[in-house]
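Subject: Sanity check before I submit

Could someone independently write out the structure tokens for this chain? I want to compare against mine line by line before I put it in a report. The sequence has 139 residues.
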Amino acid sequence: MAEEPIDLIRFEGDGGSVVLRISGKDKNVLLTGEFVVGTPFVSGGVMTRISGDDLGEWQQALDLLDTGHEISWRDGANTPGLYVEFDEDDGKGRCHVTVKDARASGTAVTVPVVLDDAWFDDAYRRLDLVREFLERRED
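---
Independent answer below. Compare away.
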């Protein structure tokens, strides 16, 4: 890919991160990418493909998160899934982000993060960048 990778999803906090980095597009018009998780205890990644439908579902998930709802994205699919649960005791936007690779490795990693208004602005901007990339590459 001639262009730089785009982070569709980026959660960071308390020394850990969960990122979904889009690196290109395959011949079937699916985006190729990797969930990358890093914590002081564990780090790793799992490759995945993202469809246009997945992008629409990610926007719906962002809308739900922005209104205070927990989400599961790509739950039940044969791909790694992402889950966000709010810490009920905190009340300050603190949540737990989990990437689960149930099918291939049976592994799940959870990272605590704080979501604020700036995070949501950035998340929607990232989604727009990936959609623009997908449109540019469909020639």
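---
OP: Matches mine. For the report I'm noting this point. DSSP finds two helices and eight strands in the chain.
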